[in-house]
């Protein structure tokens, strides 16, 4: 399969759905809805929604069953970026080459746009009940999975430990692993698992896909750490080497670049192994696993 | 009935449940969980959860069916207060006589504690699926009601318009009504309606209780506006007259104090009227409606 065209086509499908699901830019209050849309349409790669759709298809489901939840996941991811960029947090002026949300709309609206995107995700998820193909019990399980992975013992917890570790020269591997599996890995795992649940996976298949999701979630963040060192500013859309400059807790920082690359490759193997019982419908998941550690942006 | 003892007893029940449902203060990351608990246990009156429990009982339900959702509602209310108090928003150093969350834990953790409380609310709601008395379909309807009322076309939207209207001398009644029904009214209405749904209300009863909730939600905020003028700093836990000093959009500001009092009383009548077909099990809701406009804090 041609992964590049696949990702491009799926990205477009997700963008179209996000455009349909989000409140219009003119809906009151317009400043809030413009701000929400600004960050949603700021050039995201839609990795999480694409993974959710692919997991749904891998178990024989149709992507329409997972699309609202896939968009909900992108909303949660986007809210986390808006809040991470705030002056009180990472204080970033640019993301993917564009001014960050608070630089355009001000801090107050940026905070509220993040809050609203997080909330909108649960509106979308609960609206799924109207889809006759999604049983309410599966839907509630998906809401539980996504909220747990996004909360204080998931993504938000990872962000707190990441922040508190910044500039600390004594960070150990266990802490970096905590940060990566929580801050980035949790939502990626939740995307894959939710796609499986919405596609009607057997519990065995859902378990295998969860293992796949955990492995690529961690691999994705290690690859990000490596890109921060080896990528150019143009490729990664932010200053190369910024993690080291900030004293960020990363895999290369605690185990060296070569060892980090080996670890990322091992995780891809674990991910592929988790898919061994799946047929060709899981090929996109296989390709994405390899792509995650080879990408240049 | 003795409303004072009733509210005190219910407040204690809600506090106990919040203590059970929230992650422990020592759970990692401890700073985040301490911050979440700090604001949850900062002396709230628990009006929203108490209303949810009372609505559940008014339709013949047991409060255990609604307690997790009642706590979820208090978490959403508390997250909104933490974010409203931030320097980029209202910039408040004190709330109910205590230092605000960001004064104690710093802005970054305060933002994340708010995010985590909002997310935790949906964890709690989805956990309700384990309760055999709550059918998944009703649960999804409650999640939809609560998320819609908390989102960009509900509470967050109201906060944006409130902020944007501050200092604007030309505010009209329609704008004040938008702010009040969205910023405060939406969650109060959602509390009452969700309690009804979780208690197994007929659609006719759920509709009546929704009308009750809408009326007291607006009455509650008008009463707050009036208290800001007539209450003492000690009673209301913040500087009296602060709304006027900030140029806040309030009912007394657009229609005068006397007219605002009449409007609040009319809304209580509408609320009581909505309960006319209910028996004695709705007495707490009746008493609370009257209390809302008579309270001194």
UniProtKB/TrEMBL annotation, chains A, B:
Keywords: Isoprene biosynthesis, Magnesium, Metal-binding, Transferase. It comes from the Bacteria. One of its GO terms (molecular function) is prenyltransferase activity. PROSITE patterns: POLYPRENYL_SYNTHASE_1, POLYPRENYL_SYNTHASE_2. GO terms for biological process: terpenoid biosynthetic process. Its cofactor is Mg(2+). One of its GO terms (cellular component) is cytoplasm. PANTHER family: FARNESYL DIPHOSPHATE SYNTHASE (PTHR43281). This is (2E,6E)-farnesyl-diphosphate synthase. It comes from Geotalea daltonii (strain DSM 22248 / JCM 15807 / FRC-32). The lineage of its organism: Bacteria, Pseudomonadati, Thermodesulfobacteriota, Desulfuromonadia, Geobacterales.
